[in-house]
Specification:
The complex is a heterodimer of chains A (421) and B (284). Chain A is mainly alpha-helical and 421 residues long. Chain A is built from 19 helices and 2 strands. Classes of the chains: A mainly alpha (421), B mainly alpha (284).
Chain lengths: 421, 284
Amino acid sequence: MSDTTAGQVLTTKDGKPLKAALARALRREKLRSLALIAPLLIFVLLTFVAPILDMLFRSVENSIVEDTLPRTVVALRVWDPKSGEVPDEEVFAALYGDLLVAVEEKKHTRLGSRLNYEESGISSLFRKTGRRVNRMDEAAPFKEQFIDADDKWGDVGTWQVLRQFAPPYTDGYFLSAFDAQRTSDGIEMKPEDERIYMLLFGRTLFLSIVITVSCLLLGYPIAFLLAALPLRTSNLLMILVLLPFWTSLLVRTSAWKVLLQQQGVINDFLVWTGLISDASRLVMINNQTGTIIAMTHILLPFMILPLYSVMKTISPTYVRAAKSLGANDWTAFWRVYFPQSVPGIGAGAVLVFILSIGYYITPELVGGTSGIFISNRIAYHISSSLNWGLAAALGTLLLVAVMVLFVVYDKIVGIDNVKLG
Amino acid sequence: MSALPPYASPLQRTWYYSFRVICGLIFFFLIFPILVILPLSFNAQDFFTFTKEMLALNPDGYSFKHYEDFFTNPDWQQALTNSVMIAPVATLLATSFGTVAAVGLSQSHVPYKPAIMAVLISPMIVPLIISAAGMYFFYSRIGLQGTYWGVVLAHAALGTPFVIITVTATLVGFDRSLVRASASLGANPVTTFFKVQMPLIVPGVVSGALFAFITSFDEVVVVLFLGSAGQKTLPWQMFTGLREQISPTILAVASLMVAISIILLTVLEMLRRRSERLRGLSPG
């Protein structure tokens, strides 16, 4: 390239600057890879990410009050909730107008059950008033007629709730998820005996830690043995780990249900050996013990596999070197082998913990009432109590916890290094 | 660890054997619950434990009645049909989208790769109950809740991360100059993909598809919320069976599902051996 001097631009054969041509080629390559990824990306965004965002939105969304009682919400803006007095006639007139429309469209009962989550009794208040509102006299003052229909309308508390949940967004669901509530004096914790969600979150964390630790205690020796044995033997023994891994979750849960029952295999065996009497059969299911045993079994392969893949890379020469320098077996293991296996412990423990705090099926089937997780409560609010906002708020909190843990996992293992089977 | 040296002290000997016993017990814990349901599923009585006849190996203690119930009971048959209708379609969707995307992701210059990867892997990370809740809310807005396609789309989304992971893993060892060679010989990109790239990454695609299939076939949380009675799958039927009227037919179904897992495991193991042999990693 003797003809290339400083300042002269390199060109391709057809006279374009080489730099521009390269940039174009690179851009084309980027576009091609994006075009290949795009179908899946759009698919996942539509079928999976959008639902998750919708759930996050639902945990703060609260347009039902404004949609059902638009005029009342406007009229209430001038009312001072701290005045201690019921709003004046103007607000009641607006309420009458709104309720007439709402009853026509049968929307007032939905609003009633929504507000009932915040204060019990409002649901019946709306239903009762809904039956009366068509018979009200439009000439006479509405205030007396409403209070006559249900004296809760004369209660400042009812109006405070209505006023507080009038805005289209609310932190009410998150406050409930934290066992807190908003009173006229600001945010405060609910009475001791009504605090259930923090208790459930605490229990979910506690049981997940217990499950992670027992998985580690059981998984470490197995991974150690598999990594130390010759490949042929360890491949055979690996089947004993992979078969449970590949077996349906429900199959394993049913197996534990069969084993742990009071008339089940384990109790029958213990009675037969004479270790326990027939009258004192162990209660191992429908409580925390059941959840811990079954979930340790289900999640154990998720601990063994990452541990094994890390231990496989630890060279046996280090331990031999330590021993030749005078370390006994324990010191060689603890000071040389164990520190090298710590990344595997981190990866396995975080994985098991992430999986375990979101578990639903197994606690539902073997957990009874004392062994259930926060996810069971979320499911309850979706399908039984129909308090979707609260379910969404609890789900959001759980999601945040999992995301934080996942960032930790990503730091330890790296998202690209996830291996299967 | 691998072998006990002849000069080992008695303490070392004791530890060596007790360590193996401990490991044996843990292996027993892993495998026993799965093995125990196999004989119990042949119980002639409606019990969940071994009867005296069974322990005495008396043929009268055993029967196929729970299997007969599974194959004749319309509830179970409907559930089986639904599972067979949903899982393959979800697998097909997940595998085709996932394979193409994995090929795109393995190119050398992918803009925003970490962010894209995080989105694509997210269905595997987010707890199922949250996915189920979000999908339930969102799909009922757009009228997919309680429909066949709602369940299929949800299951396909849950299966894609597995396809991405397994296929990208096989593409790591893929020689890019093969693609250039094929192009220089006049093949267009589509021909190159199907004739050159596809045959080489087939093990990854198949094992990804198996993962996607088992994800859908075993999935119960999402279908429980998204499905209506018309989409009752086998795991859903098992779930209700375990929660309400627990019948020993569940054990027969469970045994059949263990058989399916064994088949899947064998196929995967054969694929793994094949790809190791192709790459010259394994001696045998």
